[in-house]
UniProtKB/TrEMBL annotation:
InterPro entries, per database record: EF-hand-dom_pair, EF_Hand_1_Ca_BS, EF_hand_dom, S-100_dom, S100_Ca-bd_sub
PROSITE patterns: EF_HAND_1, EF_HAND_2
Domain of life the protein comes from: Eukaryota
Residues in EF-hand domain copies: 60-88
Name under which the protein is recorded: Protein S100-A15A-like
Keywords carried by this UniProt record: Calcium, Metal-binding
Membrane-crossing segments per the record: none
GO CC terms in record: cytoplasm; extracellular exosome
Organism: Odobenus rosmarus divergens
GO molecular function list: calcium ion binding; calcium-dependent protein binding; chemoattractant activity; transition metal ion binding
Annotated GO biological process: endothelial cell migration
Pfam families recorded: S_100
């Protein structure tokens, strides 16, 4: 059976996480350096469009996700990071739709 695009995307996220987690230290967790590399290498347009390239954003995201305060992001904590990014991008998507609608209907 062939995987759906969403299933394939989920598999790629898992593979990406483990690829970056294995770079240094604990192979099951991401350091701040590894998280930054993962985000900047794999979702640069996403980070740019959200205005999230600044180092403080990634540091704050890391701090908020690191629930057990061990200075590492386990996979469950990484899901928090993904959720935050998806939420922010979803809001941007709605703003773009609203802008497009307003432009089309001369509501500016």
């Amino acid at each position: 059976m062939t995987h759906t695009p969403v299933e394939e995307s989920l598999f790629q996220i898992i593979c990406c996480y483990h690829q970056y987690a294995a770079r240094e230290g604990d192979v099951e967790t991401l350091s701040l350096k590894e998280l930054k590399a993962l985000l900047m290498d794999n979702v640069p347009c996403f980070m740019e469009s959200l205005g999230r390239k600044e180092p403080y954003y990634i540091s704050e995201l890391f701090r908020a996700a690191d629930k057990n305060r061990d200075n590492q992001i386990c996979f469950d904590e990484f899901l928090f990071v993904l959720g935050r990014l998806l939420r922010d991008y979803h809001l941007l998507y709605h703003r773009q739709l609203c802008t497009c609608y307003c432009t089309r209907h001369s509501l500016h």
